[in-house]
Amino acid sequence: MATTLRPRPAALNLTPSAETRIADLMARAPEGAIGVKLSTPRRGCSGLAYSVDYVTEAKAFDEKIDTPGGTLFVDGGSILYLIGSTMDWVEDDFTAGFVFQNPNAKGACGCGESFTV
Q1: Where is the signal peptide (predicted)?
Q2: Three-state DSSP class for 66?
Q3: pLDDT, tens digit only, all 117 positions of the chain
Q4: Which of 11, 78, 98, 115 could form a disulfide with 105 if both were Cys (CB 3.0 to 4.6 A apart)?
Q5: What's the pTM?
Q6: What is the CA angle 33-37-107, rounded to 5?
Q7: Torsion angle of alpha carbons 11, 102, 106, 40, nearest 10°?
């Protein structure tokens, strides 16, 4: 009997506006940057926060997501908190930033800075 492999679902879904923002970031990236990286460091009143930074090297367990404008890496230690999430870029008159729809989040702080799983 042959083994059939199913395509692996995306760990993180990106909206077109998030992909455009990654392209904008990479167009202005510092020398040596190979992409941007999403991680979930421990901070805030709920425990975890979303952080996006430039990276100069890929780590062994990072998830690599190629977008039309550049590469998004997802921290290997954060991936379990983010599986099935959607990353969007939202701008309005007063704020601009990445917004996450995370089905794994069980709660968030009142200011929206952090979440808990």
Answers
A1: none
A2: strand
A3: 678 777 766 788 999 999 999 999 999 999 999 999 999 888 766 678 889 999 999 999 999 999 998 999 999 988 888 888 999 999 999 889 898 888 877 766 655 565 666
A4: 115
A5: 0.82
A6: 160
A7: 70
